[in-house]
Amino acid sequence: MRFILTILIWVIIVGGLWSYSKKRMEAEANIVRNVPEIALVEERYSLRVTPTFSIEPDPFALQTDDSASAGIELRLNGTDIQIESDSMQRGKAWVLEKVDGLAVGNNEIYVQASPPIAESDLEHGVRVQLVKAGVATVDDTVWGQGGLVSGTIHFELETKDEKHDH
């Protein structure tokens, strides 16, 4: 009797779960997803990144064969921008002349950099500027103390048509 009761409970639980999963997958298949169109900015922008420290590879980062661990990570709207740590010097701006991937509306720049371990007791910063025609549209600094300097800078870009005079 116990054996039959165990099989019956197993069939009810597993059968109910299987039925629920099947109906859920059928319902998800009928959902229409609207992917928003992202309008890219047509103006030409340049990106300047200026650290207040010498960039060094993070000694605590996981080292794999594929990753060279440059010591700095820079992403624009989730897309990696490749920077060699040798090109970054304390107090000197690293410049990317043509920035691709800027969208009309909300954007973000993520920065993560590794200062030298000997300077871990100091405060460090990375200044990020987005420049259009010699004028800084975005000018912000990401600060860190006692380790990695990391942060996200959020900003919004408008097209010429969207600007309003109030």
Give the proportion of residues in helices. 10-25%
Strand content: 25-35%
Globally, the shape reads elongated
Say what oligomer this is.
single chain
Supply the helix-strand structural class: alpha+beta
In the sheet with the most strands, the strands line up as: 4-1-6-7
Integer average pLDDT: 85
Low-confidence stretches: none
Instruction: Tell me the series of helices and strands, N- to C-terminal.
Output: HEEEEEEEE
State the separation between the terminal residues, measured CA to CA. 82 Å
Number of strands: 8
Q: What is the CA-based Rg, rounded?
A: 25 Å
Largest sheet descriptor: 4 strands, antiparallel
Tally of alpha and pi helices? 1
Set out the fold topology:
Layout: H1 2-29, E1 46-51, E2 72-76, E3 79-81, E4 94-96, E5 105-113, E6 123-132, E7 135-145, E8 149-157
Antiparallel strand pairs: 1-4, 1-6, 2-3, 2-5, 5-8, 6-7
